[in-house]
Specification:
Blueprint lengths: L8 H14 L1 H10 L11 H10 L4 H13 L5 H5 L3 H7 L3 H13 L3 H4 L4 H9 L6 H11 L11 H10 L8 H8 L6 H16 L6
Helix pairs in contact: 1-2, 1-13, 3-4, 3-7, 3-10, 9-10, 11-13
Protein name: DNA-3-methyladenine glycosylase II
Enzyme class: hydrolase
Keywords: DNA damage, DNA repair
Length: about 210
């Protein structure tokens, strides 16, 4: 199976050119955003730790907590299982997130196998774990696996950016935003990066870690 991936700046450039061709709003907005951020990170357990840490937190808080976990060596499943709750708490993890992290560590996910699986199969595998919802699985697909055509319509920053960029009367609900994003295939992950960049410029803060 051949999967379209975003691995380099050239892939973002190709995707952005596609968006500009198919949509006058993208054609107008993209030049002002500058080069889009690749934001690729290594896949595997550490990427899931990052995604769980980011749930319902500001980007700055999430980065701080993930940095503490990494510095403590707690980005490996065996380390998490060997660590007491108090250490995880002192790193900044709430009770639910500590449980989620342990559950993922115990699950023994074959992260190498996920690289070859279709998007929806990866989502099904990850969302079967406690604390891993569809948004977290979509973040893993976009940033860790580099899938080119994944979108996260429940992401509030994407909703707000779409409202502003398309001059909508209110934030689109996930179903409506997912429908709107269908037009951006096969580069929906580039569209997500563009919307996050638009949100950053409009709000003065990052919408994603």
């Amino acid at each position: 199976m051949s999967l379209r991936l975003i691995e380099a700046e050239a892939d973002l450039t190709e995707g952005a050119a596609h968006l500009a061709r198919i949509c006058p709003v993208w054609a107008r907005v993209l030049p002002g955003l500058g080069p889009l951020d690749l934001r690729r990170r290594p896949d595997g357990f550490a990427a899931i730790v990052n995604a769980i840490t980011s749930q319902q937190l500001s980007t700055s808080a999430a980065r701080t907590i993930f940095a503490r976990l990494t510095q403590a060596g707690l980005d490996r499943p065996e380390a998490v299982l060997a660590t007491d709750d108090e250490t995880l708490r002192l790193c900044g993890l709430s009770g639910p997130k500590r449980r989620y992290l342990r559950a993922v560590a115990e699950a023994g996910i074959d992260f190498d196998a996920l690289r070859e699986q279709p998007d929806e199969q990866v989502i099904a595998t990850l969302t079967a774990l406690p604390g891993i919802g569809r948004w977290t699985a979509e973040m893993y697909l976009i940033f860790a696996l580099g899938r080119a055509d994944v979108f996260a319509p429940a992401d509030l920053a994407l909703q707000e950016a779409a409202r502003l960029m398309y001059d909508l009367p209110e934030r689109p609900r996930p179903k409506a935003l997912a429908a709107q994003a269908e037009a951006w295939a096969p580069w929906r992950s580039v569209a997500a990066r563009g919307l996050w960049a638009y949100y950053r410029d409009a709000k003065g803060r990052e919408g994603v870690t």
